[in-house]
Amino acid sequence: MSEASAVHAHQFDDISQQHEASWNGMWVFLATEVMFFGGMFTGYTIYRYAYAQAFASASNHLDIVLGTINTAVLICSSFTMALSVRSAQLGLRKPIMIFLLLTMILGAVFLGIKFTEYYQKFDEHLVPGYDFSYEPSLARPAAIFFSFYFALTGVHALHMIIGIGLLTWLMVKAWRDRFSREYNTPVELVGLYWHFVDIIWIFLFPLLYLLGRHLG
Amino acid sequence: MNGHVTERRLHYLNVNYGVKSWLLTTDHKRIAWLYLISITFFFFIGGLFATLIRLELLTPQGDLVQSETYNKLFTMHGVTMVFFFLIPSIPAVLGNFLVPMMIGARDLAFPRLNLASWYIFIVGGFFTIAAAAAGGVDTGWTFYTPYSSIYSNTHVALTVIGIFTTGFSSILTGLNFIVTIHTMRAPGLTWFRLPLFIWAMYATSIIFILGTPVIAIALTLVALERLFHFGIFDPAYGGDPVLFQHLFWFYSHPAVYIMILPGMGVESELISCFTRKRVYGYRFVAFSSVAIAIIGFLVWGHHMFVAGQSVHAGMVFSLLSFLVAIPSAIKVFNWTATLYKGSVLLSAPMLYALGFIGLFTIGGLTGLFLATLAVDVHVHDTYFVIAHFHYIMVGGAVMAYLGGIHFWWPKMTGRIYPESWARIAALIIFIGFNLTFFPQFVLGYLGMPRRYHVYPPEFQVLNVMSTAGASILAVGYVLPLLYLIWSLRYGAIAAANPWRARGLEWQTASPPPTDNFELTPIVTEAAYAYEKEPEEVYVFGKPAHV
Amino acid sequence: MLGFPLFPEQASTMAGRVDALFYFLLAVSVFFASLICILIVTFAVKYRRRSEDERPPLIEGDLRLEVFWTVVPLGLTMIMFFWGAKLFFTTNYPPRDSLEINVVAKQWMWKAQHPEGRSEIDELHVPLGRPIKLILTSQDVIHDFFVPAFRVKKDVLPGRYTTVWFEATKAGEYHLFCAQYCGTQHSGMVGRIVVMDPARYESWLGGETAGVSMASAGEKIYQRLACNTCHLESGTGRGPSLVGLFGKKVQLQGGQSVTADESYIRESIVEPRAKIVAGYPPIMPTFKGLISEDGILQIIAYIKSLTHEGIQAKK
Fold first, then answer.
1. Residues of A in contact with C286 (CB under 8 A)
2. CB atoms closer than 10 angstroms to residue C7
3. Looking at the structure, do residues C13 and C93 belong to the same domain, yes or no?
4. A15-215 belongs to CATH 3.30.70.120
5. CA-to-CA distance for B428 and B442, rounded, in angstroms?
6. What digits encode the pLDDT tens for the residues B234-247?
7. CATH number of the CATH domain containing B479
8. Residue A51 with chain C: CB contacts under 8 Å
9. Check: complex ipTM more than 0.85
């Protein structure tokens, strides 16, 4: 197996040490992200139990159709990302780029739908601090719900945007034929990141959209 | 090129010159210097705020500054010292410099990330200084809501953005250390052969990774509440201001272990070198670092015994707080035992190390008063607490930092500092420190609350004593600044191992070459093997793979 | 003796007990701090380096010693924990016959209201030798009620009630400090606790600013806002009966139950949908903004007075 095409950075002894370090690094980083989102999830959970009725009522104002579509979009994007990683492991330049592009498109679709929802919320006067209006007996805890909604999905969307930026960077590298069977770590690591952001959404969706919903 | 300099050995300082070679460096040793200069700057800024505070407190009335200004002074003192000096100090300066060398590596795992962490630190500092210049912030470094999120008229959001940004710097440093220590140890360097400084940096990095994101989110929510009127902690919305305290202290308690664990790591290095013995109970000291990091995450509620938390929660936090004290006690006993039958040299670093043991012990014991529920009710939010944490942070962490700077100065600069001046400064610091902070224990039990601009006249004498001590302490801190800079030009040239220490970092030139070692070291013995010669402990020149 | 104090005076039943624990901690601390300092100095002198070629013996450690100096501190700290927890428990549960006084904190002053009606600012008059329970709330930010001479302290929160209790043992005046940073005049938010012997306290109660009792004031608000149109005494109205409610366990929708204390009543007025009583519809409107914090405390005082015996007596 040729290592000539895979040059390792000077601080490492060999390519396998570099690979191991990169993997460790990404997992440690994801641990910090868990703690970051965890703080918000904790706060949300505490209020959800203190104000169950208000939160359920507010949750019903979220667009469940758009939310479900977005969930499907993200799961598909994780699939295309995984295919891109697989292509990179096989050293197939064109498929890497195709699947990266599909992932980026799906990510952009997610963001588009998200911002449509945000726009709707402004229209419906459900943005705390901006002409917020709600049934008076539930208004204040409902405002807390929406504060968390915007904080959680906003921070998540920010991570998606960063993810799309990373995918663009990968795209450029793939186009320059930088990935091979021996060296494809960046694709793997961005894949990890992307899957993580997807998993955060898998938690967000039921917590925010599916509270006390009487479906059907 | 330069005719009359005969054979100039290349090392990391002279291998290239110019501002760009420093600002775009990826060499962990140069990055350590970038941090050293930055945090020294912040230390003196924080010290300036402290000076003004102590001058104001000479008299019971508010006659030096107005109340608003005073409130900004203690806030900015806390923010600067905690986030821009203490938290980065040992990890980002000594850790960055030494971690790769102590494990026989050429650099950290992610050198560019290391440089990025410094820039992020500087951006964070810039935001906070901008907030100070624009008029400051007056919430206390603890930012309790709803005062910080709704009522304060000062630059909360700007300051909070600065702290948030700097938090990323910590996270990246911690990430780098963890990965480096896991994957890049020299051949033969098993976990239980590691220097205790590395164990301490590892435990600190765990806290960096798991704790910092939580304060990031807590401060983000405060900023959102402030800027967009989200009602998260606002009682008018049914929000819970105490929730902020939980989120804040969940990080900020472990943060104090971030501030002391690295100092404990330095302590082990100094004690072993200046007794020429292995650290007594090595494994116990190593495990204690990890135990402190883990249990440290479980005690945050001891800041909230009177905050409206349930009595039973208070009991759980109190019990755990006593448990977290035990590993620290174990370390103190082990360091003291290391002195037994050692060959003790009272060099300046050793004076700092011995001072550390005494002052940290006092600080730690007073922590027990605070962990004791019924006593904490009386002394919470008084000068007793201030005295307690300054004994640990200043009497402990800062002394360890100074001891480390002196100890590794020859390695970092290739120069020896003036030993007599250093010993005098250490003594001045020790005396000034105790005179400043011991009276504050008495003031606290008497009932003088924290963050008080004006106070009842019967507290004045103790306050004057404290300020007198602070003036001595200030002299003690200025001295090293002066003679260390002096030594850069006029100090004696250092040998590779002037202290005849055993660590790997001493087995290469002073200053070291850019890649740290000419030949890859292989470790064959435990740390601090002073009963052997270095040649029996390390082998050089073998291939990297064993 | 010195012209300035080194130790606070003891003016409550708890003060001496807290100090006893404090002295224990002090003794342990002085012992260990001295031990370490003496050992350090002794070793540093006795084992000082006499020649550069000294080779200290290889001493790695001793498990028995490690266990010893782990177990002994553990034992001592557990004594501290249990003693402190036990005392803390006592300080958190006021005796049943405590005299209740309401305190509202705001930037930057203390307002106290006695149940009989007298109110005061930045001062609190209390009778000697009787347990006093303070019900504390804030109108704005977090404050803290701290009386060093009594060794009591409790945060005062907006949107919630906290309580603190003490029994004064010495007549006199004592510092009251706000001990939670609350803004510009935080250090000016001080007052005094005036402890009087019971007879003098009674006559003070009837003094100039005496007004109607809190319960009467509360009744007025209750009637003005027509609370009784839903909260019928019989319990058959749109809302549950409030007679005999205070201190009782209430069954909520969803199976949980809660004790009807001051916080519960306040929340029911301000966020009525947070907890719905089982068997009643969730239709109570909110009165947030319509009643001040003082007013809410007065309503609570009124509800406390709605006992079955009281109603019978009126009839």
1. 136-137
2. 10
3. yes
4. no
5. 22
6. 888 888 999 999 99
7. 1.20.210.10
8. 271, 273-274
9. yes
